[in-house]
Amino acid sequence: EFIGHCSNLQVWYEHDYDSRLLHRNLAFPLLKQLTEIGDHLAKRAFREEIAKRLNSGYPSVVNYLIEEKYIDYLGRDELLFNLLIHEEAEVIRELEQLSNIKFEKSIQFEILYDFEEYKRNSIVIKNKHVIRLDMYKVNLRQFPEIITQLSYLKELFLRKLRLKSISENIGELNSLERVDFSYNIIEKLPDSIRNLQNLKKLYLENNRLYFLPQALGDLKNLQELNIIDNKISTIPETFIGLLSLEELWMRGNYFEKFPVVLENLKNLKYLSLSVENVPKVPPKMENNKNLSIRFYS
User: Fold this and answer.
1) Domain limits at 19?
2) Where does the chain cross the membrane (predicted)?
């Protein structure tokens, strides 16, 4: 058996450390050790093999490379262009240039990702596509149009970026399920938001919205909507179309009268209101045992 192992190692060496000739659990640690003691051939082979296996996209292989921290041996572009399709790698690189964020420090993978324990200024990758993008506290001011090229995005978090508006092209991101534009200075939402038919959660807290577009009522799958601390005084009648809405945070606005359209939201389970600027809640809603209404000062 020992002679067999030696023979395998000899063949492996003669083929420039091709790790396909040894099981990865043996080849990778050996290449790592050889790299650390200064074997330049091993170092090159090590990086090539890491990149090759990342490029395969197999979840178990990628998981192994992450857990054992082999991806730390790759440079920034090597990492991005092996983890993502070329077009999306270019988008991430351009976003880095716009924002001075270095996403390679906070790359996560769906196989390891808890959607409630996310990192700020990070991306989440699945099958060589970005499925989640988080940009936080970066002074962008303008919505980065190139984001709309990330067509597999499911979650988009753009918070505290001083954004004044959202591009009409956001309607192209029709895989989105969760969007958070909180703590910007947005005054208006684009009508193209109606195209986000998979959207389940929309957070718009602490912006400068004076009204909500009629188009919002087309989001049949929307379950949560947060419009806390804006300047909204009315709710559009099209809200009757929000058949799946369960939670609505609307305190901190300027409603002159209670939005009666809310009485028609059959699945609404939670509603937050401000004490000082909302007239009396209709009895139909007050007596609804399935609806929790909270008042905040």
Assistant:
1) 2-73
2) none
